[in-house]
Every structure is written in C-alpha cells, then in structure tokens.
Amino acid sequence: MLFVGDDWAEDHHDVELQDVQGRRLAKARLEEGIAGIARLHELIGRQLDENAEADQVVIGIETDRGPWVQALIAAGYRVYAINPLQVARFRESTSVSGAKSDPADAHTIADMVRLQHHQLRPVAGDTAEAEAIKVVARAHKTLIWERNRHMLRLRHALREFFPSALAAFGDLAGADALELLAKAPDPDSAARLTTAQITAALKRARRHHVADKAQKIRAALRAEQLGQPAIVTSAYSATVRAQAAILTTLNEQIKSMQEQVEAHFGRHPDAEIIVSQPGLGMILGARVLAEFGDDPDRYASAKARKNCEDHGVSSQAVA
C-alpha cells in the first residue's frame, strides 16, 4: 500500500508519499489544477507495481470537497478527509517542537493515514445529485444566517435613534418594513408617511388585516420619542437605508435559492422517503440528505449513523 499526505492551500498542495514502514518515498509541492493532479498521479505511478489497484493508494487531506478531492475519488484512490484539529493534535503528540509548516503537515497527514486509517472515515461516495443538493442547501442556510445578522444590525441602529420603528414593525426583515424604512429611514420622514403609503406596502407584502395594521404602524411612527442630534440622525438614517437594501436583496436571493433547493431535492429518488418522516418538509429534508449523503455504504450500521447524528449532523441540518 501507498500512503499520501496532502496539505492543501488555495493555490498549491504539499504532498508526501510513504510506504507501509513509514519511509518517505517522495515529496513535492504541486500547483492546484489539472497540471498538479497529473503530477500527483505520476508520483504515485512511480511507486506502485504495474499490477497494483488504485484503492491501494490511501490519501489524507483536510477537506472533503472541491474538484481536487473529486479527481482523487475518480482515480479510485481511498480518500480520507481529516479534521485540521485532528492533524494538530497528532502533530503535537508526535513532534517535539510541535512546529507547523506545510511540508511538515503533509508528513503528519501521511503518518495519520498510515497508522490510523482504520479509525478515519473515508470521503463518502455520494452521487452528484446529493452533492448538488448539499451545495444549494448550505448556500440557502448561509443566506438565512446572513439575513439574521443584518437584521440584528438594523435593529441595533434603530434602537439608537429611532426606537418607534421597533414598535411599529414586528418583523424587520419583512418586505413591508423594509419598503417603508427605505422610503422613510428616520423619525421625521416616517412620521410623514400616509395611511395610503403604509397600506400599499402591507398589501404588496401580502399581510392580513391591512387596515388595522396600517393604523397601528402610523400611530407608532408618530409617537413621541427621545431623539439624536440632526447630524447623527442623518448618519443613522443612511445606515438604515443601506441595511434595508441589503436585507431586501437577501430576501430575494433566499427565495430564489429555496426554489433551487426544492427543485434539486425533488428530483432525488430518496426525497419521497425523507419527507415522509414526521417534521421534514422539502427544505429540512434537503438539509438532512445533504448532511447524511446518499452513499449506501457510508454507515456500517444504524448505530454508526446514530453516532454521526449525535456528533452534530442532524443539528447542522436543521440549524
């Protein structure tokens, strides 16, 4: 067997090849891309018997995604994705100095897969359909997290100079609130909003009980409140307008990405089974499939799958 440690960076890979005794057979710095992967195949080919199978090559790398990893899997190598924290702990336990460098990490990773590959989990052989679902599901979730961050920034700004807006709008990420804040981002301009303008924004956002809500919003925006100096208010209003624009764009992209998630997940043969489980709709079902994958050999038993769930896969899916 041949053991390869691959310490990757954005534009290059430091690799080291070892035999079963841990002797260094070769090391190199390879550029990212086709030329680099071809050079790695060449290095591996020099060390293998012509009758050797590709799965006799065991490769450790600190990622489980990207075109480089996919090229390794396509070549038939056994690829193990190793957490960088595992590499750091292993390095500390085996190195006197504990010093870190890219070539040294390639050596450490090669040692790890040689000595501990039976304790590591190989990169799952998920289908391209499952990988696509993972991409869009994670992107959708990240956009939602970004929206929450910007909504908190908007809330903080309003609390500092325009607290009546917080009383007026229960959902700062709602289309009606964002439209009105973009139009009237400060107390004076908000107080001048007419009932007709507020009602139109509520209707465009498809709110219920529009007339009642419009009156409550108008009253809240006209309520007396403590204020800031005019120049400070102007600065805050610019901030509010910017955050409203960002949140509006995020809402549009979240909706667009949700459509992508539902489309990709809906085409997967396991979708019907997954959504039949209690509490799982299209979005949560897609996240579950994305994190668990669809490789039938990924888990040796139901217990192994449960252990993976206990270590955070299910919480990652529903976060």
Outline the structure in words:
The structure is a single chain. The protein is an alpha/beta fold and 319 residues long. The chain folds into 3 domains: 2-119, ATPase, nucleotide binding domain (Nucleotidyltransferase, domain 5); 129-136 and 264-318, no CATH class; 141-261, no CATH class. The protein has 15 helices and 5 strands. It has helices at 34-47, 67-74, 84-94, 102-116, 128-161, 163-168, 175-183, 187-191, 195-204, 210-221, 230-266, 271-275, 282-292, 302-310, 313-318, and strands at 2-8, 12-18, 24-31, 57-61, 78-81. It has a 5-stranded mixed sheet. The longest helix has 37 residues, at 230-266. It is elongated, with a radius of gyration of 27 Å. The two termini are 41 Å apart. 28% of the residues are buried. Residues 4-163 form the Transposase IS110-like N-terminal domain. GO terms for molecular function: DNA binding; transposase activity. InterPro entries: Transp_IS110-like_N, Transpos_IS110.
